[in-house]
Amino acid sequence: xxxxxxxxxxxxxxxxxxxxxxxxxxxxxxxxxxxxxxxxxxxxxxxxxxxxxxxxxxxxxxxxxxxxxxxxxxxxxxxxxxxxxxxxxxxxxxxxxxxxxxxxxxxxxxxxxxxxxxxxxxxxxxxxxxxxxxxxxxxxxxxxxxxxxxxxxxxxxxxxxxxxxxxxxxxxxxxxxxxxxxx
Amino acid sequence: xxxxxxxxxxxxxxxxxxxxxxxxxxxxxxxxxxxxxxxxxxxxxxxxxxxxxxxxxxxxxxxxxxxxxxxxxxxxxxxxxxxxxxxxxxxxxxxxxxxxxxxxxxxxxxxxxxxxxxxxxxxxxxxxxxxxxxxxxxxxxxxxxxxxxxxxxxxxxxxxxxxxxxxxxxxxxxxxxxxxxxxxxxxxxxxxxxxxxxxxxxxxxxxxxxxxxxxxxxxxxxxxxxxxxxxxxxxxxxxxxxxxxxxxxxxxxxxxxxxxxxxxxxxxxxxxxxxxxxxxxxxxxxxxxxxxxxxxxxxxxxxxxxxxxxxxxxxxxxxxxxxxxxxxxxxxxxxxxxxxxxxxxxxxxxxxxxxxxxxxxxxxxxxxxxxxxx
Amino acid sequence: xxxxxxxxxxxxxxxxxxxxxxxxxxxxxxxxxxxxxxxxxxxxxxxxxxxxxxxxxxxxxxxxxxxxxxxxxxxxxxxxxxxxxxxxxxxxxxxxxxxxxxxxxxxxxxxxxxxxxxxxxxxxxxxxxxxxxxxxxxxxxxxxxxxxxxxxxxxxxx
Lengths: 183, 374, 158
Ligand code: SF4
What we know:
The complex is a heterotrimer. Chain A is of the alpha/beta class. Chain A is 37% helix and 10% strand. Chain B contains 15 helices and eight strands. Chain B has helices at residues 50-55, 59-67, 74-89, 95-123, 127-148, 170-194, 196-202, 210-216, 221-224, 232-235, 256-280, 339-344, 346-350, 356-364, 369-373, and strands at residues 9-14, 26-32, 35-42, 157-158, 161-162, 305-313, 316-324, 330-336. Chain B is globular and about 70 Å long. Chain B starts with 8 loop residues before the first strand and ends with a helix. Chain C is an alpha/beta fold. Classes of the chains: A alpha/beta, B alpha+beta, C alpha/beta. Chain A binds chain B through residues 54-60, 62-64, 66-67, 70-72, 84-86, 96-97, 99, 101-102, 105-106, 109, 131-132, 134-138, 155-156, 158, and chain B through 16-17, 19, 22-24, 44-50, 52-53, 56, 64-65, 68, 71-72, 115, 119, 130-132, 134-135, 137-138, 151-153, 370. The site of iron/sulfur cluster has 12 residues of chain A, from helix 4 and helix 6.
């Protein structure tokens, strides 16, 4: 087959030459522009107040994860709602042991989530392998793959710790320091 | 299963992350229209290799690891593990410590049933029921927390005793929580037995007969729902269960409804046991006196030998087989979890049921994947 | 029938196949069997002595003796006696008959023992890895001489 010349699209210089006198722009240019303005602050305010998280209870920490979203701790107060489908969620909570077998599935869940999205490593297992760090089936250093924003140490961390993690994540989003969006 | 997929059949994968699964496992169901014709369970998504880790930890360190086998029954797992070591080393547990253990284990049985039932109720469509049960569970958790200092992974039992004595005012706290819980359980029962939609979804669904259940090796509430009164607490009493008055709750129908009913009854029975214990508990030491094994000795050598010790988990028969070679680490530990056969029973049970019943049946089994994978 | 009578009945039925039979206590008995007759013995146990409940089945590795023991812990729904059966296999080529036709729930135990110890079960309906990913087959992680434990990356971490 003959080689196909790559067609350049959205190249600012080309476009400006094509239509003289008209300034064209692209979506990424708009968002690049917005990031420097107050508008981004408003967007971030909205984002930080609707952090929906996926319920994938993977281990002991998963039980605490369930309780956090339920009646007693009631994260709904902060706009933090458990969602069953990753496609509805903004926050992936790695709540337990990541094994070699589960890792591809977790990656897939992460890929299914629409951006902007954040990761919280909840519990020692997600951070470093926890009590199972030496096991033959544990996958260590998941934070090399997932852009983890908040680490919550503990085995398991209490529900209050998860709420605080969300609070810290909100602060990070407001300060534009989170890894979920590139500023 | 994959070889002969007919023209009007398809294979649906549920899991490993699926809202209607109580943990990461995968159920591959072959459907013809709306009916499941064949299914298969895939395991191992959270296999942690606990058996290998235990071989490389000293006996005392092992207690923290066995906690994490099943996150809802940490105390009964510890009981099975600690019981093995006590049998091998011939340690006598003082009576007060035995009572404390029974109290804590029964409390944790109640909280496990509450969570399992709530989860199951949300599977069949009662999401608000989950909220109710969690609310009661939180009260119970704070009672457990006040003794063990942790909510899920307690590390509370020690060889020959328990870590701490009961705190001041424990009895009153328990009385107060049980008062609310009794009312709540009555409410759940009323809700379950009067709601016609719920009944239509559960009565006569997923029926397991006693013969099949025995053949498959099921234990715990799914077995007792078929009418077999098999309970390790009665058949092979450990701790002080032989001095306590309780009955084994059974039903005869063997369907989803009966399994949930057994759990409701068991919670009442557990409350009764705890109340008896609180009345009868003698004062005294919580650690044996004059043994070679100190209170928190990090290195202890256990005489060589082999032992199988089993206890009644919230989900059935939990057993540990321990081989000791006389060193400070176990040579081999085999964990026999109750859910292992129960989960295996899913494919035959699901044969011929509509898709919508899969979650009702799987949920009523109250499976704990972490324990199957270990 | 108490524990003593059970073990007597078993050893008189299978002379030469059952050896080292012991009564540990009223509810625990122990015996060793020749690997080739495990299935027949299980059949007998289930039908005649009402040992209908396979508690578990697993392997134990003894590298010095060059042996792998396959241990069957068999309980019952009718009586509290638990029987421990041991079949001793050579470590280089461990093969034993599957007991799935007798105890249905042995299926997963055998699959697990296969992938963790490398014990081959003859006539097993579906001998595939259960808990490990496919590419870890052949490492036999629960054998004592397994090299991948503790995990390499972990050692760098600590
Ligand atoms: S961090 Fe601890 S509690 Fe959480 S999943 Fe890991 S072992 Fe379980």
